[in-house]
Specification:
It contains ten helices and ten strands. It is 40% helix and 18% strand. The termini are far apart. The protein has two domains: 162 residues, Beta-Lactamase (2-Layer Sandwich), CATH 3.30.450; 156 residues, 2-Layer Sandwich (Alpha-Beta Plaits). Strands 2-1-5-4-3 form a five-stranded mixed sheet, covered by helices on one side. A five-stranded mixed sheet has the order 7-8-6-9-10, with helices on both faces. It is α+β, with helices and mostly antiparallel strands.
Amino acid sequence: MATGFDPVTSPVDRLLEWERALLQATTLEAWLAALVVVPDQAVPRDAVSLLLVDPTHELRHLLAGVREQGAATRPLAFVPSLAGLAPHLATLRGAWRGDFHAADHALLLPGAVGAGHIAVLPLRRGSQAVGLYVVGCRDHVPFDGIGTALLDHAADVVTATLDRHADRSRVQRGGLLDPLTGWNSPRYLHLRLLEEVARSQRERGCTSCLVVDADGLELLADEFGHAVADRARVEIAARIESQVRSSDASARLGNDGFVVLLPATDPLRATRLADRILAAVRAQPFELGTGAPRVLTVSIGIAECRPSPVQDRKIAGDQLVADSIAALYRARQAGGDRYARLGP
């Protein structure tokens, strides 16, 4: 049974809690896991399905990689059209609840056994039908005690959050996000470099750059496997991100490297940030899953850019990153877990 909710709370409160879980899910995997924890403690997980209209196969490609990862993703299915399942579904405007009839509803709940009642929440984007969220139950009508208007609002939440994760997948496939850490990609970094160099030229200011490289992850991968090393990369990325400003531009660079571009920032403030990053990364030992936890450390290279008004922006941006990498090598040669700065 998929409870996940306090049974003493009202059905409406459980529905609102479920909506919050969908809205707060930061990954597609977490969203799908929340989706199957129906706010009705009498509904088993295998009596839930999410049917998405996908005539061009775009969604199944965007959501590839999570569909077969576990029980939480089993309800996800794709159909060319809702009319192919049942003609009236394409024009269904609001939530519908009633008795389950295998002849009419078996395609909506594939694999469900013994369902006596069913609820169908149409997912719409304006006038367009984009899918169905379907719940079946053996002994009572699903979402009993919840009005149709509230169920229609819940369907809107499902649609909106699905769109958000699909858009994120589109961005990732467009090459602007790193799929492992969620950081920006080198392509994004190059675009921001041009922007920040242009800003420095206009304002006669300074842009600083930090290149951060994880220490010893190759040895960690050799000893514990690549999955553990990837978890460490994700953890390091999160600890770095906890220290940067929202105005800074962050990107992953290479396998173990990260870049933080600091607009309108002089070297003194850049070194202060480097100190905070070093402390944040080493602050909490990293749990390996087996054996004693390891302390993570990074090395950091710092450089600055004060471009002249006539300097080529691409050359200036590339030189800034190259100088930061040169400083990074100095920090690593000195033993790591420190920063080095290249500049006057």
